[in-house]
Every structure is written in C-alpha cells, then in structure tokens.
Write a sequence for this structure.
C-alpha cells in the first residue's frame, strides 16, 4: 500500500498551532486530536479507518516471507562499503526476513507565514524480487513546488537508474543531478528550493541514504544514536570552502544564521536557480548494514533538529513499539520545546 504523504496548507492532516500558543496549549491540542482520530499520532497517516486498518496489518506483518523471494543462506549484501563513494552490489541471496518492521510519520505546520512546505514519503515497494522501504523528507523553502516535485519523482528516478543494484551510490548521485536539472528547467524559477533526505531499505538488511541540505537521518542501535547524514550548513569549513571555490561567499548578519551569498542557509539543495553557481545538489551517500542491533531509523526536517539533539531523539522514543507512535512523540516534544518551523518526521521501527 502506498503511504506517501505530503504537507500542504489547508490539508486536514496538518495540525495548525497558533503563534500565541503556550506549551500547555500545544499539549491540549495534540491530546484532543489524538482522541478525535483514535489512532497513533496527531497527524493522520491514512485517509479512512479502513485504510488505517489495512496499513497497520501491512506494516506489522511486513516480514518478506510472502514475496516469493529466495530462502537460501549466505547472501552477502555488501562488502564493507565506505561512506560517500563506497558502491555496493546487492545480492539476490538470502532475502528471508526474521524481523517485523513498522513505520509511521507525522507532520505539523509551523508558525511561519509561508504555509506548509514540508513533504514526505513512506512507502513499501517490491522490485526485482526485493522488498524496498522508501522513506524521505523534503523541506521546501521559498515555496513548496520543488518539494512537491521531489515527492512525486525522485524515488522513481533513483530506482530507474541502470546501476542502482550494482552501484547504488553512483545511481543516487546521478538521479539527484538529473532530477535537479528537470526542476531547474521545468519547475522553479530563480527562487525556490528544497532539502532532501532519502532512504531506501533493501530487504531489511541494507540501508542506502542520501541527503542534501539540513534534513537529517539517524539510526538508533541498542539505544545509541548514529547520525548517517551530513548537515550542509554554511558555517562548516568544508561547506564554506565549497561555496567559495565556486565563487560565492558566506556571510552572517547580526541575529541571523550564516547564509550563502547572504541568502540561503544551506550549501546544497534542489532548485535555487539564482544561487546554483555557488551551491550544489551533490548528495552525501551512506550505506549501512541493518542488523539485530538496529531499533529505529529516523528521518526529519530541521524543525525537529533545531530544538532536539540526536541523544534527545533516542531518549524520547526508546521503548516505543510502533514507528507511528514514535513519530508523534518526537514532534510533540519538538513543539513543547518551542520549534516554530514546519516539522515532518518518518520513523521506521524494527521489532
């Protein structure tokens, strides 16, 4: 079942919090919304009760045993890949899964005046005999058009790359570049862009993650957090050097964050044609093995990370049994801490 969701101003799945709300007001709104819906999470994940029941059954029982996949042993998936450049060939070997996986997502519109600009993807897909979990956060800026386009096209572009199974890092990077070219030509003008953090879980064993911008992905393994993406912020020396090597500059105005050419608070993004000569869409790509010690995968926009550390995330959701509940709890905590931005979150839970 396709569980793709997006954020959009006026969408009934978005909870609006007044700019004057106190923490107690926020808690009250979330409690009332939870009681109204009778499901995990203040943000509805499906469009009807029937769909909710179907999705719960699919997510809770998703163990790969009904796919006709091979049951042989010794299918080595990856040979010690290195971060950002360690291509790995995916094997057709052992695909029988022993663990169940649930996933959930939640998003709320922030207190800004621009309307909701976060979009996300959470979807199971079968391809070439493999079970794929597709998860992503797209945090738009100066408009929602780029984020919306990414939601509809980026995963299809990645998976259609001929080298995807043998060289996923190469495939991700090429798909990011090609998709950005389509966006610059057909979608957006001088202004408007989006972050992207995309994760593909292959047979519950191999996770390939790519990102541009400041949306982030982390793993929780036995209660310990591992950040698996890079925040592309202008204040970091490597990112500043990248901008300056392209002829741009980074400046921080009083009371503000460092910005590329005084405008963009990240060094890598889709779109942003006006700044494209000085920024890049080249993602960092990481390949991770998923094993019995892995408990959660979390993807979220910077509306969450601005007010919560990686360790805060682990403490907030450790012990929760469903990805849906975990996503709700994270956003509830971020709101209680005063995050004013749009917040979107996807949580994958291994049982």
């Amino acid at each position: 079942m396709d569980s793709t969701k997006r954020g959009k101003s006026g969408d009934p799945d978005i909870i609006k919090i007044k700019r004057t709300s106190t923490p107690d007001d926020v808690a009250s709104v979330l409690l009332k919304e939870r009681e109204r819906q009778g499901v995990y999470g203040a943000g509805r994940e499906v469009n009807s009760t029937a769909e909710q029941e179907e999705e719960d059954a699919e997510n809770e029982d998703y163990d790969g045993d009904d796919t006709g996949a091979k049951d042989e042993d010794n299918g080595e998936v990856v040979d010690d890949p290195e971060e950002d450049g360690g291509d790995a060939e995916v094997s057709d070997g052992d695909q029988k899964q022993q663990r169940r996986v649930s996933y959930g997502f939640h998003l709320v519109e922030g207190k800004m005046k621009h309307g909701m600009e976060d979009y996300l993807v959470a979807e199971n897909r079968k391809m070439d005999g493999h079970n794929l979990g597709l998860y992503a956060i797209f945090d738009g800026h100066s408009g929602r058009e780029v984020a919306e386009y990414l939601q509809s096209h980026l995963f299809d572009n990645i998976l259609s790359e001929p080298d995807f199974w043998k060289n996923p890092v190469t495939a991700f990077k090429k798909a990011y570049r090609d998709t950005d070219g389509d966006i610059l030509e057909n979608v957006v003008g001088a202004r408007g862009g989006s972050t992207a953090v995309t994760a593909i879980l292959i047979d519950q064993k191999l996770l390939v993650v790519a990102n541009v911008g400041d949306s982030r992905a982390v793993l929780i393994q036995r209660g310990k957090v591992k950040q698996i993406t890079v925040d592309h912020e202008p204040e970091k020396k490597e990112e500043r050097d990248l901008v300056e090597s392209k002829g741009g500059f980074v400046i921080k105005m009083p009371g503000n964050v460092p910005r590329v050419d005084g405008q963009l608070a990240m060094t890598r993004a889709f779109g942003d044609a006006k700044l494209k000569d000085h920024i890049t869409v080249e993602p960092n790509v990481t390949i991770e093995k998923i094993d019995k010690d892995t408990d959660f995968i979390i993807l979220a926009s910077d509306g969450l990370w601005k007010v919560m550390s990686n360790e805060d995330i682990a403490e907030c959701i450790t012990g929760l049994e469903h990805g849906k509940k975990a996503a709700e709890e994270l956003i509830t905590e971020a709101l209680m801490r005063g995050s004013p931005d749009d917040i979107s979150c996807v949580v994958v839970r291994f049982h």
